């Protein structure tokens, strides 16, 4: 969120940010007001995430979000003009965190591991993120989601697929590019389908589905890259 928006929200929550003479505000007091505004925004976004998960995006309302946050609708409108603006802000935050998560998962040290350990190192943080942020799935895949969110998600999806393809191409230098692309696409689709099942369960059943996904992906990839992956691990310093 931009500083200008946060400052505007802070002013609405704590009064004007102008100094006593109407000029530049002092240092400590405006910062406290801005922090209050940011805290209120975080509170509203957390409430929105809960409501979106419970009711779905389409059936959710600003009144329900305000009620979940424990504030009046008027307070909510001081920071967000409508439900779409809330969804876009929440979606931006989640997409940024998702980029960080998958960027850290696809580190070179993980890619050099034996295949079974590589799958653990890459899949575990990706699965954990989705389980800890169920609103991410709601906002990325639900109907009537603001177009900006779906466009950014599609761009990120393409980036991740390219990353998977790049990793596989490094393991399969003699395989034609078209076949590497199909393998990468299939691998990515296996992950997405497995993730849907994982998200639909909890507790021990969820853990069991995580293991099933890893087993399927290992059995698919091992005949293709398993020997080379083990060879690379032995060569790694």
What does this entry look like structurally?
By secondary structure, the chain is mostly helical. It has 11 helices and no strands. Helix 1 packs across helix 2, helix 5 runs parallel beside helix 9 and helix 7 packs antiparallel against helix 11. The radius of gyration is 22 Å and the shape is elongated. The chain starts with a helix and ends with a helix. The N terminus and C terminus are likely disordered.
Put the structure in a nutshell.
79% of the residues lie in helices and 0% in strands.
Q: How far apart are the termini? A: 43 Å
**Can you write the helix and strand succession as a string?**
HHHHHHHHHHH
Low-confidence stretches: 1-28, 229-237
Outline the biggest β-sheet: none
> Percent of residues in beta strands?
under 5%
Secondary structure class reads mainly alpha
Helix content: over 70%
Determine Rg (CA atoms, Å): 22 Å
Multimeric state: single chain
Task: Give the number of helices.
Answer: 11
């Amino acid at each position: 969120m931009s500083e200008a928006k946060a400052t505007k929200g802070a002013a609405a929550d704590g009064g004007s940010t102008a100094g006593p003479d109407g000029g530049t505000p002092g240092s400590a007091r405006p910062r406290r007001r801005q922090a209050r505004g940011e805290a209120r925004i975080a509170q509203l976004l957390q409430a929105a995430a809960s409501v979106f998960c419970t009711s779905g995006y389409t059936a959710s309302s600003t009144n329900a979000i305000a009620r979940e946050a424990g504030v009046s609708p008027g307070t909510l409108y001081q920071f967000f003009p409508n439900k779409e603006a809330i969804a876009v802000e929440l979606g931006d935050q989640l997409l940024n965190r998702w980029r960080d998560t998958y960027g850290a998962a696809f580190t070179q040290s993980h890619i050099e591991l034996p295949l079974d350990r590589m799958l653990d190192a890459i899949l575990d943080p990706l699965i954990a993120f989705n389980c800890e942020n169920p609103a991410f799935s709601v906002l990325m895949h639900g109907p009537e989601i603001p177009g900006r969110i779906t466009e950014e998600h599609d761009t990120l999806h393409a980036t991740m697929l390219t990353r998977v393809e790049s990793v596989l191409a490094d393991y399969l230098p003699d395989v034609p590019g078209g076949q590497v692309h199909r393998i990468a696409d299939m691998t990515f689709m296996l992950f997405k389908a497995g993730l849907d099942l994982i998200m639909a369960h909890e507790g021990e059943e969820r853990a069991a589905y995580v293991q099933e996904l890893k087993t399927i992906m290992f059995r698919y990839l091992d005949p293709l890259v398993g020997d080379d992956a083990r060879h690379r691990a032995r060569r790694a310093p």
